[in-house]
Specification:
416 residues
Length: 416
């Protein structure tokens, strides 16, 4: 039987919050820390950040970062960048350097000894703080946020690096850096990931301490709203524009887990819609997968219209489970993507459907905010769908046997 539950992941300002769940209703079998995960060491062996790496476009491979607590030197501590040059540019001029100011204190930073020498501090930050914790005090769903940090050259105190002319908000992360984070999450089992970022992927694993997640993606420009009403209609104006990388990860073994029994848990969606972004919602009656993403219509200048993208990565086995699509190579002709605006009209956008690395990639971009709606449905002209059958399935881990009417037994199960 399908469990269909929608959870809204709202990323207002710099954070995200899931709809609260009553403690009496949830009754989870495990608990996720409500405070930021520490870096893994001999003391903290689970619910901790094991590693972080950064790979700029053009690099052959990712560069591992080292963690240092606030107040502790990291080899050659990053020094403030030289001021941007002024006057007429010539061949000897250096690129303009972003000026940042110290924001809220953070526990430390992931960085390298050569961060400044490599020119990474030109964007106004000296390293990264990876903030992973429960999305709010009432749930075990995970939220992670990659934040730029500033290091005091004398005390090594670490703070968030904020915009000089808009000091409540962080400076932008580089959109040309792919950031990869490995986190130990104990008994948590991922279900679906909704990210504010580009090409977000989540790889599940295990080690001696329990389950692990490897999260990868790059920052995208986000229009930040100071109130929910700014994300509705065509008059909303962003209070800030920041390139961010963050995500909410829905946990399957919390009883508010996403959607459909038997999915792999490797489904991920990414967008730059900063508020009112939802997990995919499955409708068994119409065989449709739908979601929304929203942001203020205008950028901070009140003139530029914010443009958006939404990318869904659906494992081919999940496509078989949901739609009965037996040949993933037919995805482009078998599945239809619909995009409508808040007013109900069509939205000008480029939409592509492709198959890569055993995943169906649905990529929509170029539409205008505030609130487009997306829906993936079967193409009525395609006729090669599988037919549901009565199956006897066995769970490969628990050996529990169940009988279902479906296209396939689903992830972690086999037909008996």
């Amino acid at each position: 039987m399908n469990r269909i539950k929608a959870i809204i992941a709202s990323a207002i300002l710099v954070g995200a919050a899931l709809a609260p769940v009553s403690a009496a209703t949830a009754a989870p079998t495990f608990a996720v820390p409500k405070t930021s995960f520490k870096a893994c060491d001999e003391t903290w062996v689970t619910f901790c950040v094991e590693s972080v790496s950064i790979q700029s476009l053009g690099m052959a491979q990712g560069e591992p970062l080292t963690f240092a607590k606030s107040g502790v030197a990291l080899g050659a501590v990053a020094t403030p960048a030289a001021p941007a040059t002024t006057g007429t540019a010539d061949a000897t001029d250096k690129p303009a350097v972003v000026t940042s100011v110290a924001g809220a204190a953070v526990a430390g930073r992931w960085s390298t000894e050569t961060w400044s020498a490599d020119g990474r501090n030109a964007l106004g930050y000296d390293g990264l703080f990876v903030d992973v914790k429960a999305a709010n005090a009432f749930t075990n769903h995970l939220f992670f946020d990659v934040r730029p940090v500033k290091v005091d050259p004398t005390s090594n105190a670490t703070t968030q690096a904020n915009q000089a002319d808009n000091a409540k908000y962080a400076v932008s992360l580089s959109p040309d850096d792919i950031i990869t984070i490995k986190v130990r999450v104990g008994a948590a089992i991922t279900d679906v990931t909704v990210g504010i970022g580009n090409s977000i992927s989540v790889t599940k694993g295990t080690d001696a301490q329990g389950n692990t997640l490897t999260i990868s993606g790059s920052a995208v420009p986000v229009a930040i709203a100071d109130k929910v009403s700014a994300c509705s209609g065509e008059a909303g104006v962003a209070i800030a524009n920041v390139s961010q990388l963050q995500a909410t990860i829905i946990v399957a073994n919390d009883d508010m887990g996403f959607g459909v029994d038997g999915v792999s848990g490797n489904m991920a969606v990414g967008t730059n819609g900063s508020c009112g972004t939802s997990t995919p919602v499955w409708d068994e009656a119409t065989k449709s997968l739908s979601w929304t993403a929203s942001a203020p219509h205008f950028a901070k200048d009140g003139v530029t219209v914010n443009k958006g993208f939404y990318k869904a990565s659906i494992p081919v086995n999940d496509a078989l489970l949901l739609w009965g699509l037996t040949n993933p190579k037919d995805a482009a002709s078998a599945l239809t993507v619909q995009i409508t605006t808040e007013e109900g009209g069509s939205s000008a956008a480029l939409t592509k459907v492709a198959v890569k690395n055993n995943k169906i990639i649905i990529d929509s971009s170029g539409y205008s905010y505030s609130k487009p709606n997306f829906k993936i449905i079967r193409n009525p002209k395609y006729k090669k769908w599988a037919v549901k059958a009565k199956l006897t399935c066995v769970d490969l881990k628990t050996k529990k046997v169940s009988k279902v009417t479906a296209y396939t037994c689903g992830a972690g199960k086999a037909k008996k």
